[in-house]
Amino acid sequence: MLDVIKPGLHTTVQDLGRDGFYHLGVPPGGAADKYSFQIGNFLVGNPAHYAGLEIRMLGPTLLFTKRTLIAITGAPTPCFINDEPVPMWQCLEIKAGDVLSFRFAQQGICTYVCISGGIHSPEFLGSQSTYIVHQKPECGYKLEIGGKLMINEPLPGAFKHAGRFLPESFRPSFSKTAELHATLGLAIHRISDEGVRVFLDSEWIVSTESDRIAYRLSGGPISFEHTVQTTETDDYSANVVDLPYPVGVITVPNPKELIILVSDATAGGGFVTIGAVISSDLDTLNQCRPQTTVHFSAVTMEQALRLRAEKKQRLASAAEYLTT
Questions:
Q1: Per residue in 184-242, pLDDT tens?
Q2: Cβ atoms 166, 36 nearer than 8 A
Q3: Domain spans, the chain
Q4: pLDDT number for residue 135
Q5: Which residues pair with 216 in a beta bridge?
Q6: How many whole angstroms separate alpha carbon 84 and alpha carbon 253?
Q7: How many CA atoms are closer than 13 Å to the CA of 171, on its beta-carbon side?
Q8: Secondary structure class of 66 (helix, strand, coil)
Q9: Which of 27, 107, 156, 269 is deepest in the core (most CB within 10 A)?
């Protein structure tokens, strides 16, 4: 059992999400930075999909009522057991009565706490991931002060993993700038050639209005192809006939703003779309803080698939390192 002394800024139960229902309007959800999350599970000897905690910016204070193992991964964050600093990216033994606490993340957004055996909470559509928008108890759990969270028993033989760590070479980097690859398309015919050039050559700044649903970025201006005037002052239209959105889609609601839909996003809409951030870069996007400077570069579908394969191989190599 975990007793929640302080819930932190926004701490939720997450796993790898509920794939397969997006076409019905159910977003995939799951850990925003899936690479860091899966590494956390590997460190404590769990399968990659076991549910853990996603912390955004400021972590909780938790009292453990039984012995177990944890790993803390993701955004660099000062973390403590019984007020003593402990390292991230390492398997740590927890004793009954220990208190885990955090300070504000120094970089990035999402930090993960994975626990041997995982978290015991209800599943909805095959996932324990929390979908805050739904506000139903069957859709996960957001930590609240005074709350209690069931954790499963450590897996057999798990305590032999105590002390193992992930080398720096396998850890993601965190920066005030981000380079994101995007495949162009969807409704790009509504963007002028000059608008596409500005999209790729400009600096885009992450807004404070960014969360697990969408990231807003300011920059531009992106010029549209001339269309029917929609207002007395605007000579563009950012609207198209509603279309399905992939996760990572980059919409252009107005010339000076992009909205990129992420884990908990809506499944469709009627804004002009210029392309989509490739899946292997979504972890990087989801770790971008407000005021992060973002540059986009265009890739072909073949290049996107190659980058995805390279990231999968990196994760597999990290898992192999931790299990040998």
A1: 988 888 899 999 999 999 999 999 999 999 999 999 899 888 665 555 545 567 778 88
A2: no
A3: 2-171, 177-313
A4: 67
A5: 259
A6: 48
A7: 17
A8: coil
A9: 27
